[in-house]
Amino acid sequence: MRIHATTLLAGSALILCALISGCSQKPAPANGTAEAPSSSSPSVPSDSQAMAEKVDRHVEAALAAPNKAEARQWLKPPGHVFFKADKQEVAQLVEDFYAAGAAQVLFVEIARDNDKEIADSMVVVLPKDSAIRAKVFSVGERADGMFDNDPMPDSGQKYLYYGLD
User: How far apart (Å, rounded) are the C-alpha atoms in residues 156 and 49?
Assistant: First the structure.
């Protein structure tokens, strides 16, 4: 009885795996040609320009909210913290962004918890000059590593955005 139950369980697991992997694949069209993805289907932006535009829209909405502050000023009080990020490392990164030529560095989506303020995200306002932008993006590569972000190439966007949690 025990061997039969084990065989049944193993067989069920194989069938489940086959169904899961088979369901994630789209069937080929009947004529054998590849179909172009539908423009009306919801999808993740496929190129860096589309992603940059999406990030800019998100940042503009965050900047329109009242819970934001200039980074250097916000870092001064001891009750201003981050959920996971190290405050000294973030402070150094803020200084590095300014030294590279960032127009402004802000914390957005700041939450209050009793006597503490917790910054959720950091925004870097990019300069227009391409040589200065390159320096800011170089600091941004380090920030991408610190915050486990995917690197964002310069696509003419207005902002760099980093989730700090």
Answer: 8
Gyration radius (Cα) of the chain, Å: 23
Q: What is the pTM of this model?
A: 0.71
Nearest to 106 by CA among 83, 140, 72: 72
Per the CB < 8 A criterion, the answer to whether 124 and 105 are in contact is yes
DSSP state letters, the chain = -HHHHHHHHHHHHHHHHHHHHHHTSPPPPTTSPPPPPPTTS-----SHHHHHHHHHHHHHHHHHSS-EEEHHHHHSSTTEEESSS-HHHHHHHHHHHHHHT-SEEEEEEEEEETTEEEEEEEEEEPPS-HHHHHHHHHHHHHHHHHTTPPP---SS-SEEEEE--
C-alpha angle 130-136-138 in degrees, rounded to nearest 5: 105
Name the amino acid, one letter, at 21: S
110, 67 contact by CB (below 8 A): yes
**What average pLDDT does the chain have?**
80
